[in-house]
User: Fold this.
Amino acid sequence: MTAAPPRSAAIVAIGTEMLGPLRQDTNSLWLSARLEEAGIRVVRKSVVGDDPAALRDELDRAASAAPLVFTTGGLGPTADDVTVAAVAEWAGAPLRRNEAFLQAMRERFEKRGFPMPECNAKQADFIVGADVLANPKGTAPGFRARKDGVEIVILPGVPSEMKEIFETLVLPVLRERAGGTIARRRVLRIAGMGESAVEQLVAPLYEKWSEDPVTILASPGEVQLHLVARGTPDEAERRLAEMEADFRKVLGDRVFGQDGDDLAVVVGRLLKESRRSIALAESCSGGLVSTLLTDVPGSSDYFLGSVVSYANSAKEQLLGVAEDTLRAHGAVSAPAAREMAVGARERFDADVAVSITGIAGPDGGTPEKPVGTVFFAIATRDGSLVERRRQLFGDRAVIRRTSALHALELLRRTLTGKAEAP
Amino acid sequence: MTAAPPRSAAIVAIGTEMLGPLRQDTNSLWLSARLEEAGIRVVRKSVVGDDPAALRDELDRAASAAPLVFTTGGLGPTADDVTVAAVAEWAGAPLRRNEAFLQAMRERFEKRGFPMPECNAKQADFIVGADVLANPKGTAPGFRARKDGVEIVILPGVPSEMKEIFETLVLPVLRERAGGTIARRRVLRIAGMGESAVEQLVAPLYEKWSEDPVTILASPGEVQLHLVARGTPDEAERRLAEMEADFRKVLGDRVFGQDGDDLAVVVGRLLKESRRSIALAESCSGGLVSTLLTDVPGSSDYFLGSVVSYANSAKEQLLGVAEDTLRAHGAVSAPAAREMAVGARERFDADVAVSITGIAGPDGGTPEKPVGTVFFAIATRDGSLVERRRQLFGDRAVIRRTSALHALELLRRTLTGKAEAP
Assistant:
């Protein structure tokens, strides 16, 4: 049984800054993933500057490559935002100012206590004959227009706005139209292990699943396995479920979550479900674990707070680490980590407390404790302690991020009762 | 005296994996920077899959946009590496196997102790009439070919190989041809102001500098002005210096730094130079300001630590905020912010302490204090206090980031004596 061939699309990112040495188009990466789900293959991506003539030429080129074209960017209020006017001219449709929309925009500005800058008015210029895609997260709406059988979808460049409009107003339509062939992707996420260690575990499965693309992606502190299955919705679901079961079998509880579940989200869910509160004592990670945990909406339900204790005096004053401990073992040591965790747990009156102390570099390493040496401890209300020492590698940013994810993974294993003895 | 008009270029990245959701083309970012220096403006970038017909179409499109086209990728030995054959067909030039090159390749493989896989032989197929660009870091050479006045430079996709060939064999030629025309870029960075407010300040300068591209880039909490001047090295330097002076005049001390200087780096430098130590009390920002400050290598010289006080009990226990204050005014209030800053300053014995308390959302807003309401305070050892209330907009992530940058900007102004009365 053969599935219908997938439709194809082209993506045009608009913005002179993305032609320079500073900014990347990243929206197209996200769009590619979502289009894949709807069985639509991206056959070409391009970036063009904020120049009406160049943009019109580029729309011709994109339209010659695929019957569905997405643009992102150039919907802002400034003089260099030219997308709407250029698309209108390209499609041979006039612009018309929508007075009701303009009025609503003015009122929103006034509500915030200042008058709308006049340059914003052009965001009320709509393409006649195009569908308007309302933007709940910003002022500029998107549009869906047509020219000679080619459909063009105009989206904002701000990622959160682009995603919101695409998810709510574009993807449902594409899915319905796709009817037949789709693709399903499952991402299995693993923290606290290296890429080659994960690869060794799953390599025996490659032969069975040789027809389906399996990709391993590594970033500091995390490894992702991307599984993709194609076919009719039923076929794809079934195939992906079997694939996932195979991979989960060899990976076991090393998988902390799937798809969009960040480790901080998973840990937050475990804390919430078990009605436990958490506090932190961070040294080398400098507040990063707290930042990751509080990125999650609703984290105030379980996150009490943390002490970022960079200076030794802070470890003593705010966490109660003994001066003797610091003198005898140093601030980067198992005893210091232990006292930091216990101190944070007591001072915040938390159910669980996690501590991290290490050497992020570039300076501060010694032969016994080179850059990348990190100690972790987790103290719980019942008096139990989990401890780890890890040697991490990379530059300062990588060591900080890896140490933060190691801490969260150790916390996850502790909360699920899977943290073996140190 | 007018400089020669800049030449323009288009870049085509070749590889099906860069059309999927996992891989980005990053070579073009590097190429853009190097080309800009040689006075060559990139007018479009595109990504196309490993498909000969699609690639030939794309070469037509690129050649219609610029007289100089770069391709990266698709030079490997496998079946999906089609660039050389496709370019040859596009340019109407035959391929001819270079037996001497093939022999040398075979010998290199044998020296490593294994026979050359036969698929590698195609890397010895050279485009007749094209210059061969030797690849000292890999097997596949690059090429420089021409068609109808358009020059096409074919480079490998492996970044280290692409860079090596470009630096040694391409850039010198481009520089020489440019006859001296180069470009210089300056980035002026501003925090704590919106994009439209910055635009209004600088708009009167657009006419004077209408020939030179000025780009405004906004991200949560920061606005960047990119100024670029072209000409001979002397002209470009002089022109950029004049441009920068004009823009700095209207922006004044709103500019916190230039080029690669992050706000946390600038603030860190100010603290270090004035030998002042810092502590923080963070609520809604959840540790983000601490994370930004400690991202900077050497920050342990001035950063003592912070308390992330999410729970009210943490504000009381760890920072000494009065229960009465929290009861009467709430945790998100000017008095709470003030006591948090004073408490952090005292407990860490810091020269300066910054506090942030606000509502990052999505929940917790009230009519008097909607989501995005944030209070800041800065306490110094001499007993002085700087305070602000700000209404920020966006989702949770944007409000958190914006509040963190606002805090750092207020700190910068305080450290430079530029924070006006609240």
